[in-house]
Amino acid sequence: MSLLGPIRVLELGGDWSGLAGMLLAQMGAEVIRVEPPGGEPARTRAPVAHGVSLPWAAFNLSKQAVTADLAQPDGRALFLELLAGADVVLESFPPRHLAALDLAPQALIARHPGLIVTSLTAFGQDGPRAGNAATDTTVMALSGLMAVTGFAEMPPLRLGFDQIGSLGGLQAALGTLIALYARGADGLGQHVDVSVLDAARLANYREPLRWEFEQAVETRRGNTARRGRGGFTSNVWRCRDGWVTWSASDDPRRARSFFDAANEMGIALDWRDHDFAQELPADMDQARLDALEAAVAPFFELYTRAELEEMAREKGWILIGFLDLSEAAAQPQLAARGYWTEARFGDATLPIPAYPFKTSAEQPGPTGPAPAPGQDNARVYGALGRSAADLERLRAEGAI
C-alpha cells in the first residue's frame, strides 16, 4: 500500500501550490487538480518545450486534472460533490478569494468536519500584506535573503531561479501531513495557513538572530564565509578547468595535510612550519587569512577539478568541483540513488527526479506526467454519477 494511499487531495489555484501537491501525490495521495475551463494560466509559463510549460510540468507530475468554473453555480456544485470524498483541499488563491465564492476554508470545514484545508499564499491569511500580489522575487526581497546574497559593491542579488515558492510548498506539504496525523487522533480537520514569506524567513534564520542579539546587519560577502574571530575566507577557487570550493579547515590534521601538498609543489612555503593545532584559521584575523589564501591560490591552478577531487578523497579534504547543470544531472551519485525516472512531456520522454527520500517500506516517486486540462473529467465526474450527456451540457455552458 502506498504511503498516503487512501488520501484524496483537491488542489486549487495557481502555481504556488504545485510542489506541495506533487509531493503528496508522489507519496501516494490521489491529487486532483481542479482548474478553470481551459486550464490554469500558469500552464503557459515560460520556459516552454515540446509544447509544455516546464515549470508547470515539473510540479504537477502524478496528478489528475478536472475542470470546474467555481464562479458558476453548476461548477461550484460539482466541486462540492467532489468535496464529499476529499480529505484535503490544497489552495493557493489570494486570501478571501474562496470566501467570495462561498467556499471559505472554515465554511468547508464546517460542512465536512474531518476536512483539512491548506492555504498557501505569499503572506498568509492576515497581516498588512495579506492581500498583496507577489512574485518569487518580491518575497525573496522581503525575506532578507537577497540582502545577504551577492557582493558588497553590487545591488542585492536574486537567487538564480525561483526558489521561494518551493520553500512555501515544502512547508505546505509538511503542514498538511501534520494535520492529517492530528486528524488520526481526534477525527477533526483544520485550516493550515502557510505564508511563503514565513517559509523564506525560516531558511534565513541565522541573520535575523544575529540582529536580535548584536543589532548587526550582515553585508553581502560573495563567495566567502565568516570565521571565528570575525574574518572571512574564500570558498571558491579557480583551477585549470573551472572552479572548486574549498575553505581552510579548522581541523589541524586536515589543514596540515592540505598545506603539505601545496608545499611539495613549492607553494605556500611560508606556511610550511605553521602549527595549525596552535593557530587555526578560525583564530586568525583578516590580515592573516588574506595572507594564507594568497599563498595557496596558485596550488589550485595546477590541477583540474577531477585531479583536485581525487586528492581530496585520498587525503580527507573537504573540496569539490563546481558542476554546470548538465554535469550535475549526469553525476553518478544521483544515478546510484535511483534519483531519475522518466515521464512524458508533450511529445518527448524526458528524465525527471524521482523523490528526495527513500523508505524501507516503499519508495515514493512519480506515477505519471502532468495531466492535460480536464483530462480526467469523464472518469472523476462519472464516479459521482454524472452522465456523459450531463458533462457535455456543462461543457457547453462553460461550467467545466
From TrEMBL:
InterPro entries: CoA-transferase_III, CoA-Trfase_fam_III, CoA-Trfase_III_dom3_sf, CoA-Trfase_III_dom_1_sf. Pfam families: CoA_transf_3. The keyword Transferase applies. It comes from the Bacteria. One of its GO terms (molecular function) is transferase activity. Coiled coil: none annotated. Residues 356-378 are annotated as: Disordered. Keywords: Transferase. This is CoA transferase. The lineage of its organism: Bacteria, Pseudomonadati, Pseudomonadota, Alphaproteobacteria, Rhodobacterales.
